[in-house]
Give the backbone structure.
Amino acid sequence: AERWRLECKEWLDLQSAADLLRETKNDVLAQIISRQDGKSHAEKDRRARCSADWHDFRNQMIDAEDKARRAKMRMKYHQMQFDAWRSHNANARQERSSY
């Protein structure tokens, strides 16, 4: 149970970090756009989306989401192990009490 709790905490922390990046992506893109040279907004937007800053931010966001998904799978795996252990113990108790 303790291991499952720790896995849950890790997943929640990683999911929060991924959510924060996802929620701020438009703000980050707007900041990058504002720093670009160009005559029109479309040109600045295109340059921003091709920039190393945007590329780095997107990679951070994708990496954070991947880490959160992997942590969620570990959490679910430990939950399944715990459920199987509980079921096994319940079955063993049932067998002992039926004698």
Notes: Residues 52-97 form the longest helix (46 residues). The mean pLDDT is 92. The CA atoms of residues 33 and 67 lie 28 Å apart. The chain has three helices and no strands.
